[in-house]
Amino acid sequence: MKNRNLLESFNRAIDGLVYCFRTQRNMRIHCLGTILVLGLSLGLNLTKTEFLFVLWAIVFVLVTETINTALEAAIDLFSPRYHPLAAVAKDVAAGAVLLAAVNALAIGYFVLYPKLNPVLPKLIDSIINSPAHLTLIAMGLVVFFVLVLKLSTGTGRPFSGGMPSGHAAVAFSLATAIVMISKDGLVATLALFLGLMVVQSRVEGGIHNVAEVVIGSVLGILVTVLIFQLYQRWG
Fold first, then answer.
1. Which of 37, 40, 137, 195 could bridge to 171 as Cys pair (CB 3.0-4.6 Å)?
2. Record-annotated residues binding ATP (predicted)?
3. Is 90 marked as a binding-site residue?
4. How does DSSP assign 98-159, residue by residue?
5. Same domain, 56 and 99
């Protein structure tokens, strides 16, 4: 059925994007990453060319994710039962998203890392100059707060599911500690990337939703930073 007019075409296009956002966890994660990267880009005073490269990488990921969603819907319509070729088509579409994500990581590294490298050590030095045992203290407190929140909300089990994600909290607590102790831009980037992989695995496995892993990640970061700051002030 053809669209009646240009306005209707825009409405249906927006409906498609909304559907993709509501039904696809990966799209919601990509959108969250977009907000974080754009905010970081504004704070780093990128040139117009650098910003265009970052913007292109972001849009490329979002476009491939929407195409992947459309292909999956079409394949499920024409092949509701399992078929090897249907599986191949879905895998290839997912591979396209992976390539776009790798491309975005490469562009982000080459554009953002030179900007972050001189800033990050100064930021870390302003936060903490402390021994490594604070990492264990911070992680222990993160686990404690996660268990308290889960008991308070009555969701999930102590070490599985529920609000917030304990794995995300511990992963980003450890990543934050690594960032503060190493004071190296590349090490910090790798640590945060590993934290994001842990978060992605919890969402992909259906154990947590995006809100639960985001809150867990923020909790891990805030508690760890607080512990390091307290040590700097009173240690």
1. 195
2. 72, 90-91
3. yes
4. HHHHHHHHHHHHHHHHHHHHHHHHHHHHHH----THHHHHHHHHHHHHHHHHHHHHT-SBTT
5. yes
The pTM for the full model equals 0.55
Block residue for tokens 């969402």 = 203
* pLDDT average, residue stretch 108-129: 66
For residue 226, is pLDDT > 90? Answer: no
Q: What is the CATH number of the domain that holds 43?
A: 1.10.287.3610
Specify if 123 maps to a domain: no
The string over 191-229, giving b where at least 16 C-beta atoms fall within 10 Å of a residue's C-beta and e elsewhere, is: bbeebbebbeebbeeebbebebbbbbbebbbbbbbebbb
Q: Is 173 or 99 the better-scoring residue by pLDDT?
A: 99
Last residue of a domain, one of 90, 115, 140: 115
Are the beta carbons of 63 and 13 closer than 8 angstroms? no
204 among annotated binding-site residues: no
**Active-site residue, 8 included:** no
pLDDT for 67 equals 92
What whole-number distance in Å separates Cα of residue 186 and Cα of residue 168?
21
The one catalytic residue among 50, 65, 204, 212:
65
* pLDDT over 60 at 128, yes or no: no
Q: Which residue has the higher pLDDT, 231 or 109?
A: 109
At residue 124, the pLDDT reads 54
Region 88-117: mean pLDDT is 85
Q: Is 15 annotated as a binding residue?
A: no
Q: Domain boundary at 78, 94, 115, which?
A: 115
65 is in an annotated binding site: yes
